[in-house]
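Exercise 7 asks you to align residues with tokens for two separate proteins.
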Amino acid sequence: MKKAKLFGFGLTALALTLVLAACGGGKKDSTDGKSADGDADHSVVIVTDIGGVDDRSFNQSAWEGLQAWGKEHDLKKGADGFDYIQSNDASEYVTNIDTAVSNGFKTVFGIGYLLADSISTAADANPDTQFGIIDSVIEGKDNVVSATFKDQEASYLAGVAAAYTTKTNTVGFIGGEEGAVIDRFEAGFHQGVIDTAKKLDKDIKVEIEYAASFGDPAKGKALAASMYQKGADIIFHASGGTGQGVFQEAKDLNETGSKDKVWVIGVDSDQDKEGKYKTKDGKEDNFTLTSTLKGVGAAVQDISNRALEDKFPGGEHLVYGLKDGGVDLTKGYLSEEAQKAVDAAKEEIIAGKITVPETPKEVKE
């Protein structure tokens, strides 16, 4: 496992001008990302998980990163530059990856751990194609790079923020599908709430539910409605497109003014826009308390740059955390007191004074 030390980026702005470890040693003999004969030096495609490139979360972040890479090198959308292939169902993973290979893309990313098996199989069948898997690890293949994130660290900060903000002393977590990745979100958030509650001498309850899908907004809305009904005033979702339903339920409740304001904590990218609403008396407001940030797009951009320069990190496992800027938390609408607590916790995690659990079983009450 290699810890990625190339992220110094601001995760809130993915179009950032990154200088990402990809300098020199490649085939480029021009400065516009193309060779002298006008052909693209490299081509990259992402194969999405369900939810699509407009899920306002994980897949969208990856696509924004790839678009930034294309713009950086003056490449066009398509088989000679960069593109995406959308998966509407898990049954499409294999076909979509095969399509990417058949279309001649030199680097093919699987966006999400659910594509790991399909990427692994394709890598064996196509040794001359470069593959990347995001949020999972594929070992022992020189043509596959794995990129994972310390989601538990950013989620711990979200837990700190929630504990400082809640008025009902009940908060919620809604996950998409159960597995190692969402375990990190749940465990980090839960531990952050527990540790902070102790410091504040509060008794805070954490409701936890799973939608069994990353693409079911209706289920997300129903789970959120139940949690808010039970007294939660803040819900952290790690559920991809399912989270759109969580935001919709919070918006409905806040716009009707039928109860005190409820909040949502966004995931993977700054979901501030999803929290905009008008109060019952017509005033502009926002209920996205904060969002955990995950540099999916920046990782895609970084790896694509390395591949372009003939430095594809095949066989490596790149890990991005708070220390190298791979994950973070937005300022959002936190109180000054909550923000100070978040900043302090961040420093302690980076310094190794706080070790954040990666699985729910490791959470300490």
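Second protein for Exercise 7:
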Amino acid sequence: MNTDPRRAGGQTPDDEPVVIGAGLRPVEDRLRQSLDSEARSITPGDRLGAILTEAHAADAGSGSRRHRWLLPSAAAAAAVLLAGTVWAVNRPSGSTPPVAATSSTSGTPSPSASSGAPSTAPSSVPTQTATGPTTPATTPPTSAPPVTAATSVPVYYLGPVRAGSAQVRLFREFVSAPVATPATPEGKAVAALRLAMGAPPKGSQYRSAWAGVTPQSVTLAADSIRVRLSSGSDAAGLATEQLVWTVQAALGKSLPVRFELADGGAVVSPGHPVSAAYNRPTDQMAVLEQVAPVWVDAPARNGVVKAGAPLTATGVASTFEATVEWEVLRDGVSFEKGFTTASAGAPARGTYRFTTKKPLTAGSYVLRVFESSAKDGSLAAEQRIPFTAR
């Protein structure tokens, strides 16, 4: 086929340029219209190299039939593409269509070689991707730790009435605990339960019945107190009573206590189902079955008192004829001892108070408050409190 009107036979030497004739004008017009539309959504680029590469690949794969017409066609297409691209770049800005915020225009597929094999040439139209505004990554606000204040709360501990005794009773102590501010009765109650169920304090003979169990919440209602625990306890004895006395004292309410176990358990402690409500006894003899005969309220365990001044101690006792004996030890040696009388005798519970005659020098001490047996004078009950004078 002769594509050059100047020569007969269509034989054009390879070293002479190919002249694009008027017969290609319709092709040019159609390409211009198509490429004008395409150029509106592409990034301008030079495709001449890629088109010539594809043309040579097609010519090499045709065997004896060399399609000479591909070269002038490719050159025409490249020229029109370049002209259309220049027009698209230089046309007035008002005619530029908006680009969608997240759209992506894919490149048109490359023409296949005459053999039908897929072309490995680059895509004929570069891809233009417009991305929407990027929202900067935000760091989640860090929760500030709750503000706490040291608050004195009543705590009931489990321990023997005297060293080596099998009788276990409840001992009340006032302990300083961190409570979230503003402090609420429920917050104080949870703090008190946490201490009662935790590790025994230093210098005591108390024991824990709630290893691995934690208090989760306390709810004060008009007719009851609800305590939610992580689970129940396997310890027999006064484990449940310990929590009842502690939470009622912390709230200042003698309301029935109901328990809920987060793990779905049915028993608070052996013999104490979650279906029941619990309260501290009111009968004096029943009270003695649960609480120790001697409590010390002050000085506080491991507390500090003023050196150079006498020691004043206070507490509660239920002893024979209201007699309360005491002794102050320093380094295991008696520093001073005496006795006092409580406001009520057993089985009632009365308060007591006494002050040493000697001022305390700086150092470490242990206060013993105890009851001797009326029968043989042996030690019947005792509470020991270590403290420091500074």
